[in-house]
Amino acid sequence: MLGIFSAIATTCCAPVLAGVLALSVASGTIIWGAIFTLSYVLGMTLPLFLIAIFLDKYKLAEKIASARKTVALRIGSFQWQITISELISSIIFSAWQLHNLFGIQQ
Question: 75 and 51 share a domain?
């Protein structure tokens, strides 16, 4: 689970990292540079560790994995089974694409 959150956070951390490195260099002292860098690292990793501890303590990952109920879908003679999470995500992505195709452009 920690890898999923890291992958999501990676898309926006590069500009912030550049800013932190610029502040660290511009601060003029090693101590302030270390404080800026350490705060960035703790701000990025501490929430992920807290989420991982919370998921592990209450065994939420196992509960989510065990609750994978399937739904049977059929269109004509074609039938398939998907999980509820796959159904929800496909509805969301389809709605998003319809919005992209036919949505109001500003």
Answer: no
* Cα 61 to Cα 65: distance, rounded to the nearest angstrom: 6
Range of the domain at 90: 68-102
Give 7's pLDDT tier (boundaries 50, 70, 90): low
pTM of the predicted model, to two decimals? 0.51
User: Measured at the alpha carbon of residue 80, what is the angle toward residues 76 and 82, in degrees to the nearest 5?
Assistant: 135
Question: In angstroms, rounded to a whole number, what is the distance separating the alpha carbons of residues 49 and 34?
Answer: 21
Residue pair 88/69 in contact (Cβ under 8 Å)? The answer is no
Question: What average pLDDT does the segment 44-63 reach?
Answer: 88
Q: Would the CA dihedral through 27, 32, 38, 39 be positive or negative?
A: negative
